[in-house]
Every structure is written in C-alpha cells, then in structure tokens.
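pls read this protein.

:::
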Amino acid sequence: MSVMKRMSMIFKSKANRALDRMEDPRETLDYSYQRQLEMLQKVRRGVADVATSRKRLELQINQLEQQQNKLTEQGKKALQVGREDLAREALTRRAGLDGQLTDLRAQYQQLQGEEEKLTLASQRLQAKVDSFRTRKETIKATYTAAEAQTKINEAFSGISEEMGDVGLAIQRAEEKTENMKARAGAIDELLASGALEDFSGPKDDIQAELDRMGQGPGVDVELERLKAELGQAPAPKELNQGAPAAQQQDTPQQAEWPQRPGGAQ
C-alpha cells in the first residue's frame, strides 16, 4: 500500500470518528423526516397538477360536446326548412369536432390514469412518512433516555472517584491528626519532666532551682540502694528509718564487739 493511500485511509477514519462525535441521531432523524415531507409535498403537487389538467380537458370536452349537440340540432332544423346546404355545413363542422373530442378524450383517459397512480403513490408515501415519524419519535425518546442514563452513570462514576479521593484525604487528615496528638502529648510529658523548658510563660529561676533540689535526693537515695544491693555500699538511711529494732541489721562496728555470755552484748 502506498503512502498516499495510507494517509487517505487515516484521514478518512479520523474524519469519520469526528463526524460520529459531532452527529446527533435525533437531528439526523428530524432531517430525514423533513426530506420525506418535502417529497410527499412534491407528489401531492404533482397529483394536484395532473388533476387540474384533467379538469381542464374535461371542461373542453364538455364544451365540444355542447357544440356538437348544437350543430346536430342546427342540421335537423335546416333539413326541416329545406336548407340542405346548411344541414351539410352543420354536419361538416360536427365531424371536425368529433376528431377533437376523440383526441381530448384520449388525453383525458391518460391523465386520469396518471392521477390515479400519483394518488396511490401519495397515499403509500403518506403511510411510510407516518410510520417513519412514529419510529423516529420512538428512537429519539430511546436515545434521549439512554443519553440521560449515560450522563447519570458518568456522574456517579465521577462521584465515586471523587469520594475515593475524599476518603484518601480523610485518611491522611486522620493520620496527621493522630501524629499531632502524639507529638503534643510527648511535648507535654517533656515539659512536665523538665527535660524541655517551656519558654511560653514567665521564667521562674527560684522555682526551677527548688524543683531541681527536690528531685535530687530521690536520685541519690535510689543510687545508694542499688549499691547496697550489689554489696558495694551500706543501705541508705531511709531504708533503716522506721524499721523495728529486731529487723535492723548490725552495723560493722557492732559486728566487731565481743559477745557477752548468754547472747547479751
């Protein structure tokens, strides 16, 4: 296949697709119906013209027949009064009218046949036009309903896609909200523990020092307790305060004193 033929086929295919997108079947049907009405109108005008011609011939035939009858009566009267020459002239003229009547009657019969054919064709065409009009309206209604349904489906499809995007946006918003809540909670904990200083309010150096001093002994006591458990140091004093005398352990100095008889120190 040559390049020109391929280009021609491509152009025609693209042109057909463009025409398909531009074409509205309802407009096409209305145009076809309008064309059929125009054709029907032409047929009707043809029937009317033939009928008019036939009517003119009919009038001419009637006039000639009247003249023929008149000439016949004139011939009779001429014979009655003994004027054979006048009777001959009347019959001669009547013979000329007979030829004209024969031609007019033949034309009349021909026009009458044409009129009948055109009338029958007009009736058939009228029936086809009426049938096409009914089918046209049915197709238009079906197409309009299908078009509306397609638009509704497209709208639902767009809503579904949009709702999917909205769902993702909501999910991202919820995740960001949870992250912000967790971060805010962590900052609150750091502020409460003193690891993060709050610069938003007025700075109180005295209270900060008191808070630091209040937290210090607790750490020292816990350190001494851990050392005592490992045998690296005696238990802190807070552990022995308030304990019964029998449960208190002997100090190293007491362990070195000699025991008295009977277990007395």
Q: What stands out?
A: The radius of gyration is 63 Å. The mean pLDDT is 75. Helices lie at 3-22, 25-80, 84-193, 205-229, 237-240, 252-256.
